[in-house]
């Protein structure tokens, strides 16, 4: 997922000022609310060397009441710590109810330094991962709020920072061999981080990836994330209280009925206590602010906005490449059949983005006995009576076969999320469920590729109108397509989150720039050919 | 945990008749209720070879409507199945909502046959385990009810059964080499099964171990377990509906208020619909039956009833052994210090069972710089403001040191459970939390032993009265001790469940027969000495 992140994002100092004016009072208000409600909080900072953890922690704590938080810097294990099991130093450092503990590096440190750098075997690595998952789960179930940040910078940016640190005598010591190793082997580390994040990105302790090139942007996103999460926590605490109250009220209601019956019999009137609703006059979250709103939007997860839709390919080149790639694929398809490699290709994208056309070009020239295209529509009655993944499991290709899904299990986090066909809880936990399923497939040796065919709103409208006017294409356009179009922004948000949360090294998302159909079809074919070649050790 | 199970339990055919008269109609009623509520159910049978899976599945399905269930026999993977990832054949075999699928062997089969028999490496084994846990978790979250049985017989019983199968020409084929291997390496398999059960015994998909020596007993326990679980599920479904109704009622209430205001203004009276409460006249669970009640009790988990409290040791022998063992321990204690092995000894037991005396004899002769006794009372304010395990993590001994806990983290599933100091959800999930913590310790190389000092009610009363009469011991007895005594049966149930759910190969429970103090103290010392000798490779 890290390679999908747009690292060019920035905010000016002035914009940062706007953000802080808005969020600093909210954050400090929320700290007080959490203390009053007795909610313990852990905030974790992990990331690349020189990604700015120290600086950003300082920005985060500026608005906080220092009596309520503590920062822990997690370095190499001390002698005392080495004499206890790995989690000991974190179990003993839990915040008490109502307090905030901030970790500059954390329990992920030993995962990274020891496991990922090869000091531990596979079994031990798996165990450490399990330990971490249990740790976070047990704490969350007990009411701990866990917020995890991964600070992300590019290889180039990291190199620049190391060099600039080395230039200065007072900061020289901060760069060591291990740091340079990380920079040199950046791509390997990225894969390891990706894997670590994917495996520990849970509903209860999610990771937020912070684009950390620009410190104003990074700090704003960190503070906005903490504010949002704490607000949710406080609200859900309140609504739980509300529910209890409702129950109480119901009982109370029964008592009142009784009292009234008594009253009418005895003539004695029972006095009711007046309720004073808590008025949160202090709560600054109510304040609205246009300048801030605009910046807030830019802090959101975003992979689509960086996509360059101007790519094109002329017809001549297209035809030539198409023939070339289709021929290659036909041969590779036969080889994967012989080597019993299963392939799953998942297609998602905007309506009229050209999924059908791309799939057609992909399969045109390969042996029909070795592939299947599975069109996915709304589930039927029998499918609806099962787990939502059941129908996709039923269509998993056997070894040596290729399955192309025209729309997929990602419907859960797209249409089902947006139309409310499943609960929020259901689509939120499905990112993990989907990652588990795809990992199970790739562990078996399956190639899994996921394509998002991306067009812009203008192009979509053009294609819709074309379809309406062309009698042979009219069947392709319905009222529903126009209705979906109105929800464009909701889909953008959902697609961004989907790509970030489910793009793994083993089963990556490929964003296909599809304003030009020729370009899109060739990119799909090239990607598939490349993946097959890699799997069979040809590149 | 398997070695703690009393395998001598049995029921007569007549008693089995009583059970079936009571439970068969309930089970068939619950099947209908679950179908109506659209609840899907999976029932898994695993266990030793020749433990009676086929026979017992037949007993279970006898009362069921055959249109609502299906039995799957999971054998070696077929060619078709081998061409897909391991979970494929189970994902595709999910029951639709309202249906029951019964598995004679299951997704645990490949775990056992492939992983546990060494065909898979540690990393793959860990992955398969993870896959299984995710599978069960994802299904449960979607509303699947998963009931898992492990059929347990002794090595001797298994051998008898294999021999008797081999004698008969028509059943000979059912015993193969692999079966005999299991019988010959029974203890190794037991450890593997223990580990598998501990790791996959979750709140949402718990294992029930079935004493399968006597088929009437086993069948009764299986059916009783299914009935109990389904009853819980139906009740919780109903109470969820109730809650929704309450919310509706509240809204309704507001509307009524409005309507009344209108009425008084307009003179038009709005008619209220009368509610017809569902009367479950059909529900046979209401029927009570004394003969059945008595048998039902015997179906419960039970490790304490088999404990032989008649063991004694005369004073002479005691003194001799005590000296011998204390000297041995002093030397071992020094060696473990040198080898940096940490040791955790946990003491629980009935009031006045002699924990203090046993701990005194244990530590009397060892270097005080190398051990600590940690008395555990009710948590103080600071402890209460943290996760319940926090205070125990703080007392974890460092490598080379010995920590003796006089009462422990097991308070969660004993006093806190019984007195309602924590919620049901909290103590139920703590079995797993505790297993995780202890596994984390033993993975680090720590020795973990847990002692339950067991006396009977008569002995306890005798000791209480002695304490009251002896001025020097009066401080040891309080009103609370007498109150706890009244909850004896609740504690028996809690201790039984605790021992079964948390006795692992790496961190076992040792039941100490403590009616005779001399015997008990020696058993504790012997167990500790033995464990240290084993760890240091001396036995």
Number of helices of chain A: 21
Give the neighbour order of strands across the main sheet of chain A. Answer: 2-3-1-4-5
Can you summarize the main beta sheet of chain A? 5 strands, parallel
Helicity of chain A, in percent?
A: 40-55%
Approximate strand percentage of chain A: 5-15%
Give the total of beta strands of chain A: 10
Distance linking N and C termini of chain A: 23 Å
CATH homology superfamily name of the largest domain in chain A: P-loop containing nucleotide triphosphate hydrolases
CATH class of the largest domain in chain A: Alpha Beta
CATH fold-level name of the largest domain in chain A: Rossmann fold
Oligomer: homodimer
What is the 3D shape of chain A?
Answer: globular
Corresponding CATH architecture of the largest domain in chain A:
3-Layer(aba) Sandwich
Low-pLDDT residue spans of chain A: 268-281
Q: How many independent structural domains of chain A?
A: 2
The radius of gyration over CA of chain A amounts to 27 Å
- Major interchain interface with per-chain residue totals: A-B, 57 and 57 residues
Mean pLDDT of chain A: 89
**Derived structural class of chain A:** alpha/beta
